[in-house]
Write a structure and sequence with these properties.
This protein has two domains: about 90 residues, Ubiquitin-like (UB roll) (Roll), CATH 3.10.20.10; about 140 residues, Cytidine Deaminase, domain 2 (3-Layer(aba) Sandwich), CATH 3.40.140. The chain has eight helices and 13 strands. It has a six-stranded mixed sheet, with helices on both faces. Strands 5-6-3-4-7 form a five-stranded mixed sheet, covered by helices on one side. Helix 1 packs across helix 6 and helix 7 runs parallel beside helix 8. The longest helix has 15 residues. The N and C termini lie far apart (about 50 Å). About 5% of the residues have low confidence.
Length: about 290
Protein backbone atom coordinates (compact mmCIF):
# COMPACT_ATOMS: atom_id res chain seq x y z
CA UNK A 1 0.00 0.00 0.00
CA UNK A 2 1.34 3.44 -0.92
CA UNK A 3 1.46 6.13 1.78
CA UNK A 4 -1.03 8.96 1.12
CA UNK A 5 0.34 12.42 0.32
CA UNK A 6 1.10 14.54 3.42
CA UNK A 7 0.86 11.53 5.75
CA UNK A 8 4.60 11.55 6.51
CA UNK A 9 6.87 14.39 7.63
CA UNK A 10 10.68 14.45 7.79
CA UNK A 11 12.80 15.76 10.64
CA UNK A 12 16.45 15.75 11.68
CA UNK A 13 17.20 13.74 14.84
CA UNK A 14 20.17 12.69 16.92
CA UNK A 15 20.46 8.99 17.67
CA UNK A 16 22.41 7.39 20.51
CA UNK A 17 23.15 3.67 20.16
CA UNK A 18 25.54 1.73 22.35
CA UNK A 19 27.78 4.73 23.00
CA UNK A 20 27.77 6.04 19.41
CA UNK A 21 26.03 9.28 18.42
CA UNK A 22 24.96 10.20 14.91
CA UNK A 23 22.68 12.69 13.14
CA UNK A 24 20.14 11.37 10.67
CA UNK A 25 16.83 12.10 8.99
CA UNK A 26 13.75 10.45 10.48
CA UNK A 27 10.15 10.04 9.31
CA UNK A 28 7.22 11.13 11.47
CA UNK A 29 3.52 10.41 11.19
CA UNK A 30 1.81 13.67 10.26
CA UNK A 31 -0.84 15.04 12.58
CA UNK A 32 -3.05 17.96 11.51
CA UNK A 33 -6.51 19.21 12.46
CA UNK A 34 -9.44 18.46 10.19
CA UNK A 35 -12.54 20.63 10.49
CA UNK A 36 -15.79 19.04 9.34
CA UNK A 37 -18.47 21.53 8.31
CA UNK A 38 -22.08 20.49 7.76
CA UNK A 39 -24.42 22.70 5.74
CA UNK A 40 -22.11 25.68 6.20
CA UNK A 41 -21.63 25.35 9.95
CA UNK A 42 -18.79 23.80 11.99
CA UNK A 43 -19.47 20.32 13.34
CA UNK A 44 -16.19 19.10 14.82
CA UNK A 45 -12.42 19.32 14.61
CA UNK A 46 -10.44 16.11 14.86
CA UNK A 47 -6.70 15.59 14.87
CA UNK A 48 -5.85 13.12 12.13
CA UNK A 49 -3.18 11.96 9.72
CA UNK A 50 -3.93 13.60 6.34
CA UNK A 51 -5.14 11.21 3.67
CA UNK A 52 -8.55 9.72 2.84
CA UNK A 53 -10.20 12.75 4.47
CA UNK A 54 -13.48 12.34 2.57
CA UNK A 55 -13.70 8.74 3.75
CA UNK A 56 -12.93 9.85 7.30
CA UNK A 57 -15.73 12.42 7.14
CA UNK A 58 -18.27 10.02 5.63
CA UNK A 59 -17.43 7.36 8.19
CA UNK A 60 -17.67 9.84 11.05
CA UNK A 61 -21.12 10.97 9.89
CA UNK A 62 -22.40 7.40 9.76
CA UNK A 63 -20.80 6.14 12.96
CA UNK A 64 -22.08 9.17 14.90
CA UNK A 65 -25.62 8.56 13.65
CA UNK A 66 -25.80 11.85 11.74
CA UNK A 67 -26.66 9.94 8.56
CA UNK A 68 -27.97 6.43 7.94
CA UNK A 69 -27.01 6.01 4.27
CA UNK A 70 -24.92 7.53 1.50
CA UNK A 71 -28.12 8.90 -0.09
CA UNK A 72 -28.28 11.52 2.65
CA UNK A 73 -25.01 13.09 1.54
CA UNK A 74 -25.80 15.62 -1.18
CA UNK A 75 -22.26 16.94 -1.37
CA UNK A 76 -18.84 16.14 0.06
CA UNK A 77 -15.83 18.21 -0.94
CA UNK A 78 -12.44 19.36 0.27
CA UNK A 79 -11.50 22.79 -1.07
CA UNK A 80 -7.75 23.42 -1.58
CA UNK A 81 -6.51 25.89 1.04
CA UNK A 82 -2.85 25.20 1.78
CA UNK A 83 0.12 26.33 -0.27
CA UNK A 84 0.95 22.68 -0.95
CA UNK A 85 -2.51 22.03 -2.33
CA UNK A 86 -3.79 20.25 0.77
CA UNK A 87 -6.75 21.16 2.90
CA UNK A 88 -7.75 20.80 6.52
CA UNK A 89 -11.47 21.34 5.89
CA UNK A 90 -14.19 19.08 4.52
CA UNK A 91 -17.55 20.60 3.63
CA UNK A 92 -20.67 18.41 3.76
CA UNK A 93 -24.12 19.09 2.38
CA UNK A 94 -26.87 16.86 3.74
CA UNK A 95 -30.36 16.04 2.51
CA UNK A 96 -33.21 14.22 4.23
CA UNK A 97 -31.24 14.10 7.47
CA UNK A 98 -32.75 15.33 10.73
CA UNK A 99 -29.57 16.85 12.04
CA UNK A 100 -29.13 19.53 14.67
CA UNK A 101 -25.53 20.17 15.74
CA UNK A 102 -26.75 21.32 19.17
CA UNK A 103 -28.11 17.84 19.86
CA UNK A 104 -24.84 16.08 19.09
CA UNK A 105 -23.42 17.33 22.40
CA UNK A 106 -19.83 17.03 21.21
CA UNK A 107 -17.18 19.67 21.71
CA UNK A 108 -15.69 21.00 18.47
CA UNK A 109 -12.25 19.57 19.25
CA UNK A 110 -11.45 15.87 19.46
CA UNK A 111 -7.96 14.66 20.27
CA UNK A 112 -6.50 12.01 17.99
CA UNK A 113 -5.95 9.62 20.90
CA UNK A 114 -9.58 9.49 22.04
CA UNK A 115 -12.72 9.58 19.97
CA UNK A 116 -15.13 10.25 22.84
CA UNK A 117 -13.16 12.71 24.96
CA UNK A 118 -15.29 15.55 23.63
CA UNK A 119 -18.62 14.02 24.58
CA UNK A 120 -20.60 16.19 26.92
CA UNK A 121 -22.29 13.42 28.88
CA UNK A 122 -22.48 9.66 29.33
CA UNK A 123 -25.88 9.68 27.59
CA UNK A 124 -24.33 11.30 24.53
CA UNK A 125 -21.69 8.57 24.26
CA UNK A 126 -24.16 5.83 23.33
CA UNK A 127 -25.05 6.03 19.66
CA UNK A 128 -28.74 5.54 18.97
CA UNK A 129 -30.07 3.03 16.47
CA UNK A 130 -27.41 0.32 16.84
CA UNK A 131 -28.64 -3.09 15.69
CA UNK A 132 -27.61 -6.70 16.21
CA UNK A 133 -25.14 -7.77 13.50
CA UNK A 134 -25.57 -10.82 11.24
CA UNK A 135 -25.85 -13.93 13.45
CA UNK A 136 -25.36 -16.36 10.55
CA UNK A 137 -21.80 -15.25 9.74
CA UNK A 138 -19.14 -17.82 10.70
CA UNK A 139 -15.35 -17.93 10.50
CA UNK A 140 -12.70 -20.35 11.76
CA UNK A 141 -9.83 -19.85 14.21
CA UNK A 142 -7.21 -20.51 11.52
CA UNK A 143 -8.57 -17.69 9.38
CA UNK A 144 -8.42 -15.31 12.33
CA UNK A 145 -4.82 -16.17 13.11
CA UNK A 146 -3.72 -15.16 9.61
CA UNK A 147 -5.23 -11.66 9.69
CA UNK A 148 -2.60 -9.70 11.72
CA UNK A 149 0.18 -10.63 9.28
CA UNK A 150 -1.96 -9.48 6.35
CA UNK A 151 -2.64 -6.14 8.08
CA UNK A 152 0.99 -5.62 9.05
CA UNK A 153 2.26 -6.26 5.52
CA UNK A 154 0.16 -3.35 4.19
CA UNK A 155 1.02 -0.68 6.79
CA UNK A 156 2.98 1.63 4.50
CA UNK A 157 3.08 4.67 6.78
CA UNK A 158 3.79 2.62 9.90
CA UNK A 159 6.77 1.08 8.12
CA UNK A 160 8.27 4.54 7.74
CA UNK A 161 7.24 6.11 11.04
CA UNK A 162 6.34 3.39 13.56
CA UNK A 163 3.69 5.74 14.90
CA UNK A 164 0.27 4.95 13.44
CA UNK A 165 -2.79 2.88 14.18
CA UNK A 166 -4.34 0.77 11.45
CA UNK A 167 -7.75 -0.72 10.69
CA UNK A 168 -8.26 -3.44 8.10
CA UNK A 169 -11.42 -4.92 6.63
CA UNK A 170 -11.50 -8.58 5.56
CA UNK A 171 -14.20 -10.63 3.87
CA UNK A 172 -15.38 -14.02 5.09
CA UNK A 173 -12.57 -15.77 3.22
CA UNK A 174 -9.91 -13.70 4.97
CA UNK A 175 -9.17 -11.60 1.87
CA UNK A 176 -8.13 -8.02 2.60
CA UNK A 177 -10.70 -5.52 1.28
CA UNK A 178 -9.30 -2.23 2.60
CA UNK A 179 -6.76 -0.89 5.06
CA UNK A 180 -6.43 2.61 6.47
CA UNK A 181 -3.89 4.18 8.83
CA UNK A 182 -4.20 7.17 11.13
CA UNK A 183 -2.63 8.62 14.25
CA UNK A 184 -6.08 8.21 15.84
CA UNK A 185 -7.39 4.66 16.08
CA UNK A 186 -11.00 5.81 15.81
CA UNK A 187 -10.10 7.81 12.68
CA UNK A 188 -8.63 4.71 11.03
CA UNK A 189 -11.93 2.91 11.61
CA UNK A 190 -13.96 5.87 10.33
CA UNK A 191 -11.87 5.82 7.14
CA UNK A 192 -12.77 2.14 6.64
CA UNK A 193 -16.46 2.82 7.29
CA UNK A 194 -16.35 5.83 4.96
CA UNK A 195 -14.68 3.73 2.26
CA UNK A 196 -17.53 1.24 2.52
CA UNK A 197 -20.22 3.93 2.60
CA UNK A 198 -18.92 5.77 -0.46
CA UNK A 199 -18.34 2.53 -2.35
CA UNK A 200 -21.81 1.13 -1.72
CA UNK A 201 -20.57 -1.80 0.37
CA UNK A 202 -22.77 -1.31 3.44
CA UNK A 203 -23.86 -3.14 5.47
CA UNK A 204 -20.61 -5.00 6.12
CA UNK A 205 -22.54 -7.94 7.53
CA UNK A 206 -20.15 -10.64 6.28
CA UNK A 207 -16.88 -8.97 7.17
CA UNK A 208 -14.22 -8.82 9.88
CA UNK A 209 -12.66 -5.62 11.19
CA UNK A 210 -9.15 -5.85 12.65
CA UNK A 211 -7.59 -2.94 14.53
CA UNK A 212 -3.96 -2.60 15.55
CA UNK A 213 -4.69 -0.99 18.93
CA UNK A 214 -7.13 -1.86 21.66
CA UNK A 215 -10.81 -2.60 21.11
CA UNK A 216 -12.40 0.35 22.87
CA UNK A 217 -16.05 1.24 23.31
CA UNK A 218 -16.20 3.67 20.42
CA UNK A 219 -14.51 1.23 18.05
CA UNK A 220 -17.24 -1.29 18.93
CA UNK A 221 -19.92 1.32 18.22
CA UNK A 222 -18.41 2.15 14.84
CA UNK A 223 -18.23 -1.52 13.88
CA UNK A 224 -21.87 -2.03 14.86
CA UNK A 225 -22.95 1.09 12.94
CA UNK A 226 -21.43 -0.44 9.80
CA UNK A 227 -23.08 -3.81 10.45
CA UNK A 228 -19.78 -5.61 11.10
CA UNK A 229 -20.30 -8.91 13.00
CA UNK A 230 -16.67 -9.58 14.05
CA UNK A 231 -14.23 -7.09 15.57
CA UNK A 232 -10.72 -8.22 16.45
CA UNK A 233 -7.77 -6.38 17.95
CA UNK A 234 -4.19 -7.23 18.79
CA UNK A 235 -4.61 -5.71 22.25
CA UNK A 236 -7.21 -5.70 25.01
CA UNK A 237 -10.78 -4.38 24.88
CA UNK A 238 -12.27 -2.12 27.53
CA UNK A 239 -14.94 -3.23 29.98
CA UNK A 240 -17.58 -1.01 28.36
CA UNK A 241 -16.69 -2.39 24.93
CA UNK A 242 -17.24 -5.93 26.19
CA UNK A 243 -20.61 -5.05 27.74
CA UNK A 244 -21.87 -3.43 24.54
CA UNK A 245 -20.64 -6.37 22.44
CA UNK A 246 -22.40 -8.86 24.72
CA UNK A 247 -25.60 -6.79 24.66
CA UNK A 248 -25.83 -6.56 20.87
CA UNK A 249 -24.22 -9.84 19.88
CA UNK A 250 -20.97 -8.61 18.33
CA UNK A 251 -18.08 -11.06 18.27
CA UNK A 252 -15.28 -9.23 20.09
CA UNK A 253 -11.78 -10.70 19.99
CA UNK A 254 -8.69 -9.42 21.76
CA UNK A 255 -5.00 -10.33 21.96
CA UNK A 256 -5.04 -11.75 18.42
CA UNK A 257 -1.36 -12.57 18.17
CA UNK A 258 0.34 -15.60 16.66
CA UNK A 259 -1.64 -18.74 17.49
CA UNK A 260 -3.68 -17.25 20.35
CA UNK A 261 -6.70 -15.01 20.79
CA UNK A 262 -9.29 -14.30 23.48
CA UNK A 263 -13.01 -14.10 22.70
CA UNK A 264 -14.88 -11.68 24.96
CA UNK A 265 -18.30 -11.91 23.29
CA UNK A 266 -20.01 -13.79 20.49
CA UNK A 267 -17.79 -16.87 20.45
CA UNK A 268 -20.45 -18.78 18.45
CA UNK A 269 -19.21 -17.11 15.26
CA UNK A 270 -15.63 -18.36 15.51
CA UNK A 271 -15.53 -21.33 17.91
CA UNK A 272 -17.59 -24.54 17.72
CA UNK A 273 -19.67 -24.91 20.89
CA UNK A 274 -18.18 -28.33 21.63
CA UNK A 275 -14.67 -26.86 21.91
CA UNK A 276 -15.54 -24.23 24.53
CA UNK A 277 -14.72 -25.44 28.04
CA UNK A 278 -14.22 -23.68 31.35
CA UNK A 279 -10.83 -23.89 33.07
CA UNK A 280 -11.70 -21.66 36.02
CA UNK A 281 -14.53 -21.47 38.58
CA UNK A 282 -17.36 -18.98 38.10
CA UNK A 283 -16.56 -15.41 39.06
CA UNK A 284 -17.59 -14.48 42.55
CA UNK A 285 -19.76 -11.46 43.18
CA UNK A 286 -17.73 -8.65 44.75
Amino acid sequence: MRAPTRSVELTQVTEWEDGSVRSLQDSLAAEEPLEIRVDGGPLTVTMRTPGHDLELTAGFLLSEGIIESADQVAGLRQPPMNSNGGSNVVEVELKDASFDSRNLQRNFFTASSCGICGKASIDAIRRRGLRHPNRDFRIGPELLCGLPAALRSEQAVFDRTGGLHAAALFDGNGDLMAIREDIGRHNAVDKIVGWALRGGHLPLDRHILLVSGRGGFEIVQKALAAGIPVLASVSAPSGLAVKLSQELGLTLIGFLRGRRFVVYAGEFRCLPAATVRSSSPPLATL
